């Protein structure tokens, strides 16, 4: 029994150290939030309003392009071309969102965490004004620091490290996941007009 209790304590200590802010690598840097996209572009806000599991890292991809790294109680913005995108949140769990974006619109995806055995599972929740989570996210938004992806050496190393895995997952997605209940959808009309 003592061995089991010792093992559980060791696991909890490892988890708390892994979630400590001092162990975060500097992939994201502070940036002033944009209120609207550049003309003809779409702006997607990836918002993680909770500090629960705050040190649990998730990489966010647009297809095979790394666009951000998410930690708790912060957000980041991604300006992109309108049209179809496949956003993938990658942690212990892969959470795909198929998005169809219109130009000159602002979109929101909440990043929620559920704890698994060793680390948090990140789930993307595409938001619109009818979603029950909408008001919570909008109320938290002004107090959350806005981060931008740092294209420095460490961030590029993270992107290269994940390239093989994301390429394999995209092939798996096309074969097994696309059209299933694991996929969430961000619709064109879910965006707020920036005009």
How is the secondary structure organized here?
Layout: H1 2-18, E1 28-30, E2 42-48, E3 58-62, E4 65-70, E5 74-80, E6 83-90, E7 94-101, E8 105-115, E9 120-126, H2 134-140, E10 146-149, H3 153-177, E11 184-186, E12 192-193
Parallel strand pairs: 2-8, 5-10, 7-11
Antiparallel strand pairs: 1-10, 2-5, 3-4, 3-6, 6-7, 8-9, 8-12
Q: What's the main sheet like?
A: 7 strands, mixed
**C-alpha Rg (nearest Å):** 17 Å
The share of residues in helices is 25-40%
Count of helix runs: 3
The total domain count is 1
Shape descriptor reads globular
Q: Which band does the percent of strand residues land in?
A: 35-45%
Average pLDDT over all residues? 80
Question: Structural class, please?
Answer: alpha+beta
| Strand element count | 12
Low-confidence stretches: 5-25
Order of helices and strands: HEEEEEEEEEHEHEE
In brief:
The protein has 195 residues and is of the alpha+beta class. Helices cover 25% and strands 36% of the residues.
Describe, in plain words, how this protein is organized in 3D.
Mean pLDDT is 80; it is low at 5-25. This protein has 195 residues and is of the alpha+beta class. The chain has helices spanning 2-18, 134-140, 153-177; strands at 28-30, 42-48, 58-62, 65-70, 74-80, 83-90, 94-101, 105-115, 120-126, 146-149, 184-186, 192-193. The protein has 3 helices and 12 strands, in the order αβββββββββαβαββ. Helix content is 25%, strand content 36%. The radius of gyration is 17 Å and the shape is globular. The longest helix is centred in the C-terminal third of the chain and has 25 residues, at 153-177. A hairpin with a 4-residue loop joins β8 (105-115) and β9 (120-126). The termini are far apart. It has one domain (24-193). The strands form 2 sheets. Strands 1, 2, 5, 8, 9, 10 and 12 form a 7-stranded mixed sheet that branches. It has a 5-stranded mixed sheet with strand order 4-3-6-7-11, with helices on one face.
């Amino acid at each position: 029994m003592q061995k089991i209790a010792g093992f559980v304590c060791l696991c909890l200590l490892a988890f708390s150290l892994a979630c400590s802010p001092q162990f975060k690598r500097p992939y994201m840097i502070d940036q002033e939030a944009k209120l609207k996209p550049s003309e003809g572009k779409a702006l997607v806000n990836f918002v993680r309003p909770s500090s629960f599991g705050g040190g649990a890292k998730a990489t966010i991809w647009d297809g095979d392009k790394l666009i951000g790294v998410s930690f708790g109680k912060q957000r980041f913005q991604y300006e992109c071309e309108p049209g179809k995108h496949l956003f993938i949140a990658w942690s212990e769990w892969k959470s795909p969102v198929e998005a169809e974006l219109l130009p000159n619109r602002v979109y929101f995806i909440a990043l929620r965490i559920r704890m698994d055995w060793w680390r948090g599972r990140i789930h993307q929740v595409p938001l619109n004004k009818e979603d029950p989570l909408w008001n919570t996210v909008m109320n938290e938004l002004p107090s959350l620091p806005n981060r931008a992806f740092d294209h420095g050496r460490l961030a590029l190393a993270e992107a290269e490290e994940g390239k093989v895995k994301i390429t394999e997952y995209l092939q798996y997605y096309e074969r097994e996941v696309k059209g299933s209940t694991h996929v969430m959808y961000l619709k064109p009309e879910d965006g707020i007009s920036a005009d």
